[in-house]
Write a structure and sequence with these properties.
alpha+beta, 245 residues
Amino acid sequence: MNDDKMLQKRMNELSLRAYEKGYNTYSDFLNLNEISELKKSDAFSNCELYGGYDNADRCVAGFGYEHNKSKYPIKCIKIAPVRQKFADELNHRDFLGSLMNLGINRSTLGDIVISDNTAYLFCLSNIAQYICENCDRIKHTTVKCEILDSTPEVANKKPESEEFIISSQRVDVVICAVFKLSRNQATQLVNQEKVFINSKAAYKESLILKSGDIVSVRGFGKFVFGEKIKETKKARSVFEIGIYK
């Protein structure tokens, strides 16, 4: 049985258990590929996705009928240098690498939001204390961990609106404009299944984006496709696009 079939089987089991037992069930964190597969399955009709904050890439699937975000088994951990002045410049890879070195399964970890050299890690509740007790260094920097009582504002940061001249609403054309890539590079990203529209893999570069579509491109970032706001003097279309930074 391949990975996609195993995932769908697992999700169907969680959905059935929620229905038969009358309580909510939850998956581990799912990546964008897994979420895309889940959306193809029957189980998705009885499911809500949440990653600890709105518009998270990695999400837990909750099965049941009365979904409450506060009930999801997710904690947020603030991981900050003890002495910021002498800290290394830390990025997403640095934090994730140190966490993986603790022997943690990637499926227990959600998004890692970086701000001011500090990470806000979303993880399953049952692994949060272990992380706090064992994660004390990122690269050469001593860090401290703290489980937060609420979602930090930085995680709910709104996308920054920018204007782009776009000749077409095709996903490859828009990706080229937003990330300053060639058409060939954009096509390769689609073919490599690294482009997701509303958490579903984009299998054709000719897919047309609609206002409100959230596009994630692995290795590059995420944006919200907006409305056409004007035309230039040469009758070229200008669209508003929100970039997550």
